[in-house]
Amino acid sequence: MYIRYEVADKIATISLDRADAANAQNSELLDELDAAWTRAADDDDVAVIVLRAEGKHFSAGHDLRAGSKADWGKITLERIYTNEARRYLEYSLRWRNVPKPSIASVQGRCIAGGLLLVWPCDLIVAADDAQFSDPVVLMGIGGVEYHGHTWELGARKAKEILFTGRPVTAEEAAQVGMVNTVVPRAELDEQTRALATRIAAMPRFGLRQAKRAVNQTLDVQGFYAAIQSVFDVHQTGHGNALSENGLPILVQLEDMKANIE
């Protein structure tokens, strides 16, 4: 089990529990996470959902160690597309549209695939040591599958972090509106819980309609269509990687690991 699920005082707390691997996401973790979101969405005793993580880092992103070099000989772009459409696109969109407020509580590194977990949440509370990054241009890919970069950061800041691969600090993320609040690391759980408790006291139907109003406004502006279309752009990066014979995704693994040491 890679996910812990608890409910108390109208708040469902979903915890990533793979701290020994910096909460890197294998298929099992993502499937368990999706099941937890569905459970919280269907539970009438839950008013607010909190997503958090055990350990030093929120998430090191996709677990690139989950496959071996030998496995890559069996991989086709069609297989990559099918798996990623399910776990990296459909899951994230489903979490975004759960009709209950959600809060991501983030500490340490949140790398690449980690963004697919926090961006679907309605609010983000970040510890002062949090850093957000998407360095997959190193792999010949233009950004992670759920391409919220432009919406979350603005066009020029999105290009900067993609072009350079550098992390965005919690304070910087707050300045551009991606993060709601920055708190001391030692107070992260307490402050997140306090925010969730305040929201849980609000009328549920009003919360549901407020969330729907904001999400629908973003969709009218093109969010949903953009996420879908840029997912296909992302897949051309995999096509490039498969055509190189040097398996650049695996070649860059050591560089990626160095970012979370």
Automatic annotation (TrEMBL):
It comes from the Bacteria. InterPro entries: ClpP/crotonase-like_dom_sf, Enoyl-CoA_hydra/iso. Pfam families: ECH_1 (PF00378). Belongs to the enoyl-CoA hydratase/isomerase family. This is Enoyl-CoA hydratase.
